[in-house]
Design a protein that fits this description.
heterodimer; A: alpha/beta; 2 domains; 7-stranded mixed β-sheet; 11 helices; B: about 375 residues; mainly alpha
Chain lengths: ~375, ~375
């Protein structure tokens, strides 16, 4: 399992070669067959975005012949370029997973151009023809799992008021809010989702405030799209509300309040990628998928989920997994009354229009700007 | 270093008959190297104990720190790249410190400088790169300079504490940046990461030839040396130091304290603004929330460790750049969490501040008196 080893000349340049250090450094660099580097923007045990990737990395650690190196809390500046280069030069990494959105352009693209023989796989970026071919971007249609969460939430909510703590009004987030709401309205056509945008990916204080304020307004089931759902989950559970998780399974944080959740399934995808490379196949540069492709998954239902909700949710999940179900199916109007998807138009998951989503569907209380 | 002459005069004055040895003649200079050096060694020793408590070998720790920061040519470039913005943001604290002001809002000036520089580049789409780059430098420096002048003006004319105001202005700067980047300056194509349009590859200032280190390092060195000359070898600098020593005495001898404050604050903000311009023109290529990477805050630490001396800022910035460069290796090789680097920075800070008490108390460096 060798992805084309780079020269270790870099390691020997500079002072280390002359010191007692070089022997030690060379020994550890040669210890494994293939080195894979993972870079996280936050802490890898955040019960959220970064932990999901770290779980994927942990799945690779179980495979033989692989050495995994990880670095957390790397800023989306030239710091990440240097981290990638350091993993390449000092650890001999030949496959890199810079996992945060802001790492893609210009940072990862720059490194992919600089090291054309190595592989770079990015989560969330939009790879296009002008980007280097040794770079790739993968992402999951996690709105499918949010849709299932929405169904469960719609059945469970007694007030019909759902809450969504969101980071920024960008397409990926809006798509999750909309899918969650559309799912909830399958169960309860009168359900509404009140959304609060905190303004950034990791704002624990604002997330807690948003959670409390939603519950004060009568919301009794909450979900979120921020980097670390921990704050929302713990606060909501403390206030007696129910929650649907995001990124990873947060049920250990609130076993009674946890209904279900939209999770990434990187622990299935990353071993698949490595096997593809080892078999000499090339990973498509633009790689996407949902429940069917096992890139996302739904957390096991909590005890508070009724049999009716389970049945409906399982039914839709089966259809999504089979690939014959469309979430964004016209007619859909936004929450200002404007038709955004016309009657008779089906926007399937791969429809590029969905990547540009800039509206909130009917039933969402909130505004994108 | 300024007190150097004063002490020398005193030594000669008190004991003219005794011929002071090398140690005594250069006592103060040696102190300035010996004491921070000892503080650093002490801090590293304590950090070694801390790491040993977690079951890691401190010798491995020191080796990896050396290797990650200075051990290879790549590591050196990594260190210098990280040091470059710190020199400029440290000046934002060190220059006002000559006047006895504690400005901790370099981050805000950096963000405003970056915005102004990006605005200048986008406003001049068809100009030759050199013109655009010069316009960016000017815009960045003026933007950042005016930003810190706000704090200076509030202090001088409204009696507002400059430490508080400069810190609060950081959050205002970030809000302005987010507002513009997600509003009028947003590139409609930046879907999931709101950003301005790119300034264009031709307008990027690139790296110092033969290295990966961007020109920000050279800007930083020039700014640090120029600041040193300004403060210690000009009448203006002398007046600033007089005002910093005793503002009432300065007023009595007729120094224009208001003008001094405004000028120094402008220069301080201008250097942080230049750091912002460099981040745009050498790293990101556009403005987005990635710019708020904390360089302004680390700059405060650098300035205090350098005892507000513009020349000492250079080695201190390299040292902290090295610590941050080696942080990745500590995570990867020793499995230490990212926070361990912050622990080390905190220990160094505590040791250097505590070591202040040693100046003038080391027996063998003092003349007989």
């Amino acid at each position: 399992m060798d992805f084309g080893r780079i020269s270790r000349r870099h390691l020997l340049q500079g002072g280390a070669a002359l010191t007692l250090g070089s022997a030690l450094g060379a020994r550890s660099a040669l210890a494994a067959d293939t080195t894979i580097g993972f870079i996280y923007v936050g802490s890898r045990d955040d019960y959220g975005y970064n932990q999901a990737h770290a779980q994927g990395a942990a799945a690779l650690k179980k495979m033989s012949g692989l050495k995994i190196v990880e670095e957390e809390k790397v800023a989306e500046t030239d710091a990440v370029e240097k981290t990638m280069e350091s993993m390449i030069n000092l650890d001999g990494a030949t496959l890199l997973f810079p996992t945060s959105f802001g790492y893609y352009n210009p940072h990862m693209i720059k490194m992919a151009n600089k090291f054309p023989k190595l592989h770079f796989e990015h989560c969330g970026g939009l790879w296009s023809e002008k980007d280097p071919t040794n770079a790739g971007s993968y992402f999951g249609y996690i709105d499918e799992a949010q849709y299932i969460s929405g169904i469960v939430a719609g059945y469970t909510s007694k007030t019909g008021k759902l809450g969504f703590v969101a980071a920024k009004p960008i397409p990926q987030v809006l798509r999750n809010i909309n899918a969650f709401t559309l799912g909830a309205r399958l169960a309860n056509p009168k359900a509404t989702t009140q959304v609060i945008f905190t303004g950034d990916w990791s704002m624990p204080v604002k997330e807690a405030e948003a959670t409390n304020s939603l519950i004060d307004q009568g919301v009794d089931v909450l979900t979120c799209h921020v980097d670390g759902p921990k704050t929302m989950v713990e606060n909501a559970a403390r206030r007696g509300a129910m929650v649907c998780g995001y990124h990873v399974n947060q049920s250990p944080l609130a076993p009674k309040a946890y209904l279900t959740g939209a999770e990434w399934n990187w622990e299935a995808l990353y071993p698949k990628f490595v096997k593809m490379i080892a078999a000499g196949e090339s990973i498509p540069n633009f790689y996407r998928g949902g429940l069917k492709e096992e890139i996302v998954k739904v957390s096991p239902y909590g005890e508070a989920v009724s049999a009716e909700a389970r049945k409906h949710a399982d039914d839709v999940k089966a259809k999504l997994t089979a690939g014959d179900y469309t979430i964004f199916k016209g007619p859909i109007t936004d929450n200002k009354g404007k038709a955004v998807i016309a009657s008779g138009t089906d926007r399937g998951q791969k429809d590029p229009e969905l990547e540009k989503m800039d509206y909130l569907v009917e039933g969402v209380i909130g505004a994108t700007s | 270093m300024t007190i150097d002459t004063a002490d020398g005069v005193e030594a000669v004055g008190v004991a003219p008959a005794a011929d002071p040895g090398f140690l005594q003649r250069h006592g103060t200079t040696i102190e300035y190297i010996l004491i921070p050096g000892a503080a650093l060694v002490g801090a590293l020793a304590v950090f070694g104990v801390f790491v040993a408590l977690f079951g890691k070998n401190p010798l491995d720790l020191y080796f990896y720190m050396y290797q990650g920061a200075f051990g290879t040519w790549f590591s050196w470039q990594n260190t210098l790249t990280r040091a470059a913005p710190l020199i400029l943001t440290a000046l934002c604290t060190a220059l006002p410190a000559q006047l006895g002001m504690v400005i901790i809002g370099g981050e805000g000036a950096l963000l405003i400088g970056a915005l102004a520089a990006t605005g200048a580049a986008l406003a001049l789409p068809s100009m030759p790169p050199l013109v655009v780059q010069l316009a960016m430098v000017c815009a960045g420096m003026i933007g950042g300079g005016l930003w810190i002048m706000l704090s200076g003006g509030l202090r001088q004319y409204r009696g507002v504490n400059e430490t508080i105001s400069s810190l609060l202005l950081v959050y205002i700067a970030l809000a302005i940046l987010n507002h513009l980047v997600e509003g009028v300056m947003r590139d409609p194509a930046s879907l999931n990461k709101p950003s301005t349009r790119e300034i264009g590859a031709a307008n990027m200032i690139g790296s110092i030839p033969g290295t990966d280190v961007h020109w920000g390092l050279v800007f930083g060195l020039i700014a640090a040396v120029a600041s040193y000359i300004l403060i210690y070898h000009t009448v203006f600098g002398f007046a600033a130091r007089v005002a910093g020593g005793n503002i009432r005495a300065a007023k009595i001898v007729g120094l224009g304290v208001g003008k001094l404050i405004m000028t120094i604050c402008f220069l301080a903000g201008a250097s942080a603004g230049l750091a912002g311009m460099v981040e745009v023109a050498a790293v990101q290529g556009r403005t987005n929330a990635n710019l708020a990477a904390g360089y302004g805050f680390t700059g405060i630490l650098v300035a205090f460790l350098a005892r507000q001396n513009p020349l000492a800022i250079i080695p201190v910035a390299v040292l902290l750049g090295g610590i941050s460069a080696s942080g990745g290796l500590l995570q990867r090789r020793l499995g230490l969490p990212d926070a361990s680097v912050q622990v080390l920075q905190g220990i160094i800070f505590a040791f250097v501040l505590a070591s202040d008490a040693l100046y003038g108390r080391i027996g063998f460096l003092k003349g007989k008196s």
